[in-house]
Write a structure and sequence with these properties.
The protein is mainly beta and 261 residues long. It has 2 domains: 144 residues, Sandwich (Tumour Suppressor Smad4), CATH 2.60.200; 81 residues, Elongation Factor Tu (Ef-tu), domain 3 (Beta Barrel). Strands 1, 2, 3, 4, 5, 6, 7, 8, 9, 10, 11 and 12 form a 12-stranded mixed β-sheet that branches. β7 and β8 form a beta hairpin. α2 crosses α3. The longest helix has 11 residues. It starts with a strand and ends with a strand. About 8% of the residues have low confidence.
Amino acid sequence: MPHPKEICIEDLELSEQESTTDQQAPFIRCVALPGGEPGLALDGEGMVRWMPDGPAAYGLWISADERLVLLRAANAGPITVERGGRRVEAPEGKPVILVDQDLLRVNGRRLRVHIHGAAEAIYPPRPLTAGAIARLGRAAAAALALGAVVGTPGSGEARAPGPPPIEIRAQPPAPPVQARPVECTITAMKPSETAVMVHATCRGASGITKGLFGTILDPRTGRAMVDGQVMVKEVNKGKVVCVTMKLTKPVKATTIRFMVP
């Protein structure tokens, strides 16, 4: 199973300004999730989005062979990938493989992609503001933005002698396999720094594995709760520990539903 990856998306217009404010963030720290799951995306304006409610204009996800992928949705505007003097407009519905330092052009914006390696935690996009960069100084800021915070030097993709050609694959993410619902009873919710850890017990837990996504159910309707997505972090003899993807504080709920292959 592919693993989430930590990346930074750099707005080159903001990076190149002589002075910026704390409201302007040249770097956005992000986590790209395995393909087929809701997660990291860009909207039609080139802004970073997380768990969008509707189809994303440009999805950013991890392929089965652990590569960062850009997927342009049907009817989305043009987006261009540039690398080593090459330029390719991403076609609709066909994954484009991204590598460290690729440049994306969308709706007049220039975005640099920095790939840092496997993610130790799942979290929504976080801005790294210009004020924070200025307080650290130029040398420290460069290290921070390009890897010191989100991965040690060398934790990103290995550099080849010259950039590889831009790869476009024929097929979008495979449709999800047929799955059975498994409902788990929530026993505790414990807030952490940026999310909530949800503890639950499951009957018929066979098939629930680390990295599986599920949804907290709204106790009033029995349907998936808005912003209720979770990911399994630990499994032990019918007990699971999950991390929420959007929620930052506990909610009144009793059940998590997983769709288990």
